[in-house]
Amino acid sequence: MKITIRRSDFNRIYEYALSEQPDEACGLIAGVDREDGVREIRKVYLLTNTDHTNEHFSVDPREQLASIKDMRAEGLKPLGNWHSHPETPSRPSEEDKRLANDSSASYLILSLAAKYPVLNAFHVEGPETERVSRKEELIILEDEDHSASDSVEGRNKEEEEVADFQVTDTVDITDVTCPITFVKTKVALEELDDGDILQVHINDGEPIQNVPRSVKEEGHEVLRIDDNGDGTFELFIKKVGD
Predict the structure, then answer these.
(1) Which of 99, 178, 192, 240 is catalytic?
(2) Residue 163 to residue 101: CA distance in whole angstroms
(3) Residue 235 in 3-state DSSP?
(4) pLDDT, tens digit, for every residue of 69-127?
(5) Are the CB atoms for 97 and 105 separated by under 8 Å?
(6) Model pTM?
(7) 125-156 burial by CB neighbour count: b if 16+ within 10 A, else e?
(8) 26 is catalytic
(9) Which of 9, 31, 35, 67 sits 20 to 30 Å CA-CA off 222?
(10) Are 135 and 109 in contact, with CB atoms under 8 Å apart?
(11) What number of other Cβ atoms are within 10 A of residue 96's Cβ?
(12) Would you tell me how many other CB atoms lie within 10 Å of the CB of residue 71?
């Protein structure tokens, strides 16, 4: 399925997610399913995460009810929800998949793990113990012309600006487990000069959850996290300081 969202609505989600850090932010999306097969998001709702944690979310039931009433008043259809991942990539966690009970819904996940935000849309289906997710095509529409000119596929314009940076060195840490994953990453960074960029080939699970967080705690800059789709990621780190 192809999904569209206006740039202004993307910005609202992003700014709200930033303001809610380190907790996950959440909300609802509403709009229409067009005859041409495009799911058009026309309104986003910014709701309170009553769990107040960076690992999962629950929407405030009173705010959710008020949002549904507003959708009905405006003739909009509930399309799904959105939430942020403050420290992990833009893809459903096992907890996200377990709680995704509506197979017709779209689930938007905004990752703040790197310097530039990454927004992806997913469809989740299957029985609770065997849920699977697949990425949906997400397009950001510029508000001034309302045309599908910016096909993000999980990226926004700002992220594209750093897509051509020059990698200084690479390291593969898929053969080690935590906490050695961070140790190897740290050693590789120590070999570089200030401003150099390290590309890290890293596994899903604990490594991709913990290494970016630890790197930022050391003062370095996580530029981008690319999902290879095979259980591994490419982590791009800019060294800050010697």
Answers:
(1) 178
(2) 35
(3) strand
(4) 999 999 999 999 999 999 889 989 888 998 898 989 999 999 998 888 899 999 999 88
(5) no
(6) 0.80
(7) eeeeeebebebbbbbbbeeeeeeeebebebbb
(8) no
(9) 9
(10) no
(11) 19
(12) 20
